[in-house]
Specification:
Largest sheet: 7 strands, mixed
Strand content: 15-25%
Shape: globular
Number of helices: 6
Strand order of the largest sheet: 6-3-1-7-8-12-11
Length: about 180
C-alpha cells in the first residue's frame, strides 16, 4: 500500500533497558501505517527490553547514527530513559543536529528531558511526564512546561505519558505530512 509518506525516514530511539513499550510500539505502528520507514537506535545493537516485556533488536547504535540520513528523530520514554538516554552526549548531538537541520524532533514521557539537555527547548512550549524532576529539567533549560498530552511547537513534538502514545504518533505523522 502506497502512502504520501513513503519517502520519509525516522530514527526512533529507545533505552537499552526499561523503555516504555507502548511509547515505542504505538507511534511506530502509526508511522509505519503511514508509509514511514523506521530505523531503531539504542545505546548498542544488543536486544533492547521494554518495561512490559517487548524485545527489539536495534538497527544501529546511537553513536553511529547520522541525522542527515533521516527526516526526523523520535525518542520513546520509560524509566530506562533517565539512566540510558538523559546523559547520552551522542543522543544530545543527534537532537541538536536534527533541530539545526529543521527536522522533526519528538520525545515522549521522560524523554523530553533529552531535548532540554540538548538545549533546543528554550522558549518553546513543551510537555513531559508529570514528575517534579522532569519538569524541573525542562524549565532549567528554558522549556515552557505545559500540562497537556501532546504539545507541538514548530518542528518539536513532546508528549506526556503512555496514554498519549497514540495521539503522539498521529501528531508526528501530521507534522511529516505538513513538511511535504
Amino acid at each position: 500500500m502506497s502512502s504520501e509518506l513513503d519517502d520519509k525516514k525516522i530514527l526512533m530511539v529507545v533505552a537499552q533497558d526499561n523503555f516504555r513499550d507502548e511509547e515505542y510500539l504505538e507511534p511506530r505502528d502509526i508511522l509505519e501505517d503511514a508509509g514511514v520507514s523506521i530505523t531503531v537506535a539504542s545505546n548498542s545493537t544488543k536486544e533492547a527490553h521494554g518495561a512490559l516485556g517487548a524485545k527489539i533488536k536495534p538497527d544501529i547504535s546511537i553513536k553511529d547514527a547520522i541525522m542527515a540520513e533521516f527526516d526526523g528523530l523520535v525518542i520513546a520514554g520509560g524509566g530506562g530513559s533517565r539512566e540510558h538516554l538523559w546523559p547520552n552526549k551522542d543522543l544530545q548531538r543527534l537532537v541538536k543536529d536534527a533541530f539545526d537541520q529543521d527536522k522533526l524532533v519528538a520525545a515522549i514521557c521522560v524523554s523530553p528531558v533529552v531535548l532540554a539537555r540538548a538545549k533546543i527547548l528554550e522558549d518553546r512550549d513543551c510537555t513531559v511526564f508529570k514528575d517534579k524532576e522532569c519538569i524541573a529539567e525542562l524549565e532549567k533549560y528554558g522549556g515552557l512546561y505545559t500540562d497537556k498530552d501532546v504539545v507541538v511547537d514548530g518542528n518539536i513534538i513532546t508528549a506526556r505519558d503512555p496514554k498519549a502514545a497514540e495521539k503522539f504518533g498521529h501528531a508526528i505523522v501530521e507534522q511529516l505530512a505538513a513538511e511535504d
